[in-house]
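Student: I would love a firmer grasp of how sequence relates to backbone shape in proteins. Thank you; the sequence and its tokens follow:
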Amino acid sequence: MRSTHQRLVPRVHEAFSRRSVIRAFGAVLAIYLSPWAAASSQAQQQGARTMNHYATQKSLSDAVDGGGLLVVAQWEAKPGEADKVAAILDRFLPEAQREDGVKLFLISRAKDNPAQFLFYELFRDEAAFKAHQESAHFKTWIAGEALPLLAKRERAQYALM
């Protein structure tokens, strides 16, 4: 008999090792629970304003209440495209956060490599995730504009325990 953990958390390729997901979750919580430090670039400043506003609207317990489908994604922009990707995400993020089935939606940019982005998305259920991917803002900004600028895109899905 498999343990509850084995049933709920799918095996994913090495890019999403348990350690990297735990580190990512810790980083996301740190961002979610405390204000972002002032950033030097305009894109990072806009992201900070977006995240701070979002954090005042929901509590962590509100977000995780009732479980849901967790999607963790890692992106890496092609050389010279990172700021364009960040600008697209600045427009996309508020729209994604307002979706009915979204419980928590955070995007962060790596400090040591600004071409890397981490997404931490908690949806009410699979149907909410599918609706997110069918939304006009996803199709326009993510599928239409951002994905062509990426060198790498990896995603994994998890069920909250």
